[in-house]
Amino acid sequence: DKDTGLFYGSQDADESYYQSRNRASLKPPPIDRTIYADRNALTLSALLRYATLTENTEALRIAKRLANSIIKHLYKRDRGVFHYLDSQKIPRLPGLLMDNVLFGLSLLDVYEVTADKRFLNLSKEIAKLLVEKHFIKGLLRDSRPALVNPVTSGMLKKYSLLRSNYYGLLLFSRLQHYTPSYKETLSTLIKELSKTYENLYFTSSIFARSLLIRSTPVYDIEIIATAESIKPFLQGINAIYLPFKRLRVYLLNHDETLINKRGLPPKEGLYICRGKRCFKPISPAMDIAEKLKRIIK
Predict the structure, then answer these.
(1) Which domains does the chain have, with CATH numbers?
(2) Which helix (H) or strand (E) holds 85?
(3) Which residue, among 203, 202, 256, 250, has the nearest Cα to 230 in the 3D structure?
(4) Which member of 19, 150, 264, 289 has the lowest number of beta carbons within 10 Å of its beta carbon?
(5) Distance (Å, whole) CA 66 – CA 4
(6) Which residues of 125-140 are buried (b: 16+ CB within 10 A; e: fewer)?
(7) Whole-prediction pTM
C-alpha cells in the first residue's frame, strides 16, 4: 500500500480464473486491500531473514520502512497493536493477543539486525503491556472479548489461544536475555503450557524453541564502535546464522560508563562469549563473518 508503506492482502482465491488459459479475457478476482497487523509483522520478520541471508540491501531498506509504518499506523503506546486498518486507514480492533506478540517478536528481529535500540525498547514496551493487560489466570489472553466480526470464536478457539501463548512464550524467552523483568511470567507460562503441547504437536515446535532459548547458552555479542563504523560489524554478524544471540552495542564517546561497567576496553571491536567461554576480540580490520564462522563451528 503506497499510502502507508504497509502490505495488504492479495487477490482472493479463484481456481477457475487461475486455471483458465484465457485469463486475459476474464475479469480478475477482487483484491483484498485490508491491512492486518499480524500479517505485516510476519512479513517484517521474513523480509529481515531474507535480507540478511542474501545480503540484499533493498530488502533491508523495505523492512526498516515497514517496521516504522507498523509503528505509525497500527500501534498506540497505551493500547498496543491494532488488528487492521479500515478503508479510511483508521486503526481498528486493539487488544488481540497474536497481533501484539508477533509484532513484539518482529521488533526484536529488527533490533538484532540493525542495533537500533528504539526497536528493542518498543518490544519491551509491548511485553510490559502483555503482562499488564493480557496475562490472566496463568495464560496470555485477548484483552477484550471475541467480537462477532471479524474475530468470531469458533471450534479452533482453544488452538488459537494456545498457539498465541507459544509465540508469547517465545517473545518473553528472547527478551529474558535483555531484561530480567519477566522471570515470574515465564515460569508461570511454562508450567501451564507444559500441560498442552502433547495435544498440539503440529505447533508445539514453537514451545520447544522457547525452552531451547531458555536452556541453551546464547552467543553474547557486544560491539564497541562509533555510529559511523558500526555497519561492518552488523554486516558480519548478519551474514552468519546465530539462532540464539544477545546483541548489545556501545557507542564510543557516548556509552563510556557502560563500557567501563562491562570491563571492556574503550576501542572499536566485537566481543563474543558463550556461557563461560569468551573468544578473542574481533577488530574491524578483520573478516568479521569468517571469524564468526570459526567460532560457532
Answers:
(1) 31-148+155-215 (1.50.10.20), 219-296 (3.40.30.10)
(2) strand 80-85
(3) 250
(4) 19
(5) 9
(6) ebbebbeebbbeeebb
(7) 0.89
